[in-house]
Design goal:
It is a single chain. Helices cover 0% and strands 48% of the residues. With 127 residues, it is mostly beta strands. Strands 2, 4, 5, 6, 9, 10 and 11 form a seven-stranded mixed beta sheet that branches. A four-stranded antiparallel beta sheet has the order 1-3-8-7, with no helix packed on it.
């Protein structure tokens, strides 16, 4: 059974930092590209950041470029999202997701490309 378990969310003041982690079990981690998405009530889940299977390609939504960094440790089956200079508009539930059998150097921004999802972790940024 494939499981993705996020951690690291919480309450932080504007300008602060958080690091989210997502541990994957039940499949070979290096087979999948990984992504982070976020969702606020009443809005669609949006792509935040993604990383290719080999970690050499990354992609970010414009609103987080220069502030967020995605990385992965294939030996630990873990993907991370380091979030700096957080803003109140970053408040959301953050989900990690796996794009099964993605080409080795490809990152997809499309939600429908992702096959497995975690349960989410809440990030709240106070002003």
């Amino acid at each position: 059974q494939v499981q993705l378990v996020e951690s690291g969310g919480g309450l932080v003041q504007a300008g602060g930092s958080l690091r989210l982690s997502c541990v994957v079990s039940g499949r070979t981690f290096s087979w999948d590209a990984m992504g982070w998405f976020r969702q606020v009530p009443g809005k669609e889940r949006e792509f935040v950041a993604g990383i290719s299977r080999n970690g050499r390609s990354t992609s970010y939504v414009d609103s987080v470029k220069g502030r967020f960094t995605i990385s992965r440790d294939n030996a630990q089956n873990t993907v991370y999202l380091l979030m700096n200079s957080l803003k109140p508009e970053d408040t959301a539930v953050y989900y990690c997701a796996a794009d099964r059998y993605a080409p080795i150097n490809v990152v997809s921004k499309a939600r429908d490309e992702y096959d497995y999802w975690g349960q989410g972790t809440q990030v709240t940024v106070s002003s």
